[in-house]
Specification:
Low-confidence stretches: 180-185
Helix content: 10-25%
Distance between the termini: 20 Å
Mean pLDDT: 87
Strand order of the largest sheet: 1-2
Strand content: 5-15%
Order of helices and strands: EHHEEEH
Number of domains: 1
Structural class: little secondary structure
Number of strands: 4
Shape: globular
Length: 185
C-alpha cells in the first residue's frame, strides 16, 4: 500500500524561535531556528485566533490572509510558510492509519485551499505533530522534535525538521508508540 497524497493546508505566518545554548546542549547543536508546525516554540502573531478568518486547519488560503495577522511593524520577525499534511495518524500501535481531513479538522470552518502549493516555496523539512479532531483545539499540538526532545536522538536539520519523508515516518511511528500520554501524531 502506498502513501496517501499530501494535502495543502494553506499559509501561516510564524515567528521562528532561535534556540538558546541550553536548548541546543541536548544534542541538536545544528538547529538555528525552530520552524515547527506546532505553536509551542515557533509562534504565530498574537491574537491570530481572534480574527476567525482562517480555514479548517487554522491556516489561510492566501499569503495575504496569513500576513494580515501580523502587525505591520512586526513583519520582519515573521516568515510565511505553506504547510502540507500527510493524512496519516500514528498511535500507540506504531502502525499508521489513513485519516480524512474531516476527521482532523472542524467541519464548521472554511474549506482548505484548492490550489497547489505555489512553486516558489521550497520544502525545508518534515515535522511530526500531534493532531486529532478529538483534541478539540485549533491548530496543532506538540512536535516531539522540538517540544519533547526527540531532536536529540534523530537527525534534524537547521530548522529542527527532518530532511526526508522516510525518516519522518519512522519518527512518527516511534512518537506514536513511545508517547502514550500524548495524542495521535
Amino acid at each position: 500500500m502506498g502513501l496517501p497524497d499530501f494535502v495543502f493546508l494553506g499559509f501561516c505566518a510564524k515567528k521562528l524561535l532561535t534556540p538558546n545554548d541550553e536548548w541546543r546542549r541536548g544534542g541538536a547543536s545544528q538547529v538555528r531556528s525552530i520552524a515547527s508546525l506546532s505553536q509551542c516554540l515557533s509562534k504565530r502573531a498574537r491574537k491570530w485566533v481572534d480574527r476567525w478568518d482562517y480555514n479548517r486547519a487554522t491556516c489561510w488560503n492566501t499569503e495575504s490572509g496569513a500576513w494580515a495577522c501580523v502587525p505591520d511593524g512586526k513583519r520582519a520577525a515573521f516568515a510565511i510558510f505553506a504547510y502540507q499534511l500527510l493524512p496519516l495518524l500514528f498511535d500507540t500501535s506504531g502502525v499508521e492509519q489513513p485519516v480524512t481531513v474531516d476527521n482532523l479538522f472542524p467541519r464548521e470552518l472554511p474549506d482548505l485551499p484548492t490550489q497547489p502549493v505555489p512553486p516558489h516555496y521550497q520544502r525545508i523539512g518534515y515535522d511530526v505533530v500531534e493532531r486529532s479532531a478529538e483534541m478539540g483545539m485549533l491548530g496543532f499540538g506538540c512536535s516531539p522534535l522540538s517540544c519533547n526532545g526527540m531532536a536529540e536522538t534523530v537527525p534534524v536539520n537547521q530548522f529542527c525538521l527532518l530532511d526526508d519523508l522516510e525518516t519522518a515516518l519512522v519518527a512518527a511511528r516511534s512518537s506514536g508508540s513511545n508517547n502514550p500520554n500524548r495524542g495521535p501524531t
